[in-house]
Design brief:
CATH class: Alpha Beta
Largest sheet: 5 strands, mixed
Order of helices and strands: EHHEEEHE
Shape: globular
Number of domains: 1
Number of strands: 5
CATH architecture: 3-Layer(aba) Sandwich
Helix content: 25-40%
Number of helices: 3
Structural class: alpha+beta
Distance between the termini: 22 Å
Strand order of the largest sheet: 1-2-3-4-5
CATH topology: Aminopeptidase
Strand content: 25-35%
Radius of gyration: 15 Å
Length: about 120
């Protein structure tokens, strides 16, 4: 259950570095559990932050921030509409990644509501 004093809001353009850092932490955790090796180059993560800055202006991408009543950022979610095609009939789905403790369900629920009618992958 999500705490009552948490605000979930759209990420601002100036929070691209925060989003990149949260993504980096998520990838490092995945690596610890047998996932692919995370990029270690600072220039790679700077490029990812630049891509997120661009993404923040797209309608097919949504970045959310969870913050507590003190204004401290405590969670992050990223969602992107992806069109599956090729050998299959085109189908739009939403891919979501969440990095948060205690507020992950609220972030996921908000990300899914932004793109109602699409299947979450």
């Amino acid at each position: 259950m999500m705490p009552d004093n948490v605000l979930i809001r759209d990420a601002r353009r100036d929070e691209a570095n925060f989003a990149a850092e949260m993504t980096r932490k998520m990838v490092l955790e995945m690596q610890e559990y047998g996932g692919r090796t995370a990029a270690t180059s600072e220039s790679t993560w700077e490029k990812i932050a630049e891509l997120i800055t661009d993404d923040l202006q797209l309608e097919i991408a949504k970045y959310l921030v969870a913050e507590n009543s003190s204004g401290q950022r405590i969670g992050h979610a990223a969602a992107r509409i992806v069109t599956l095609e090729g050998a299959f009939e085109p189908k739009r789905t939403i891919h979501v990644s969440v990095r948060a403790r205690l507020v992950h369900r609220g972030l996921l629920r908000r990300a899914r509501s932004e793109y109602s009618g699409l299947r979450c992958m």
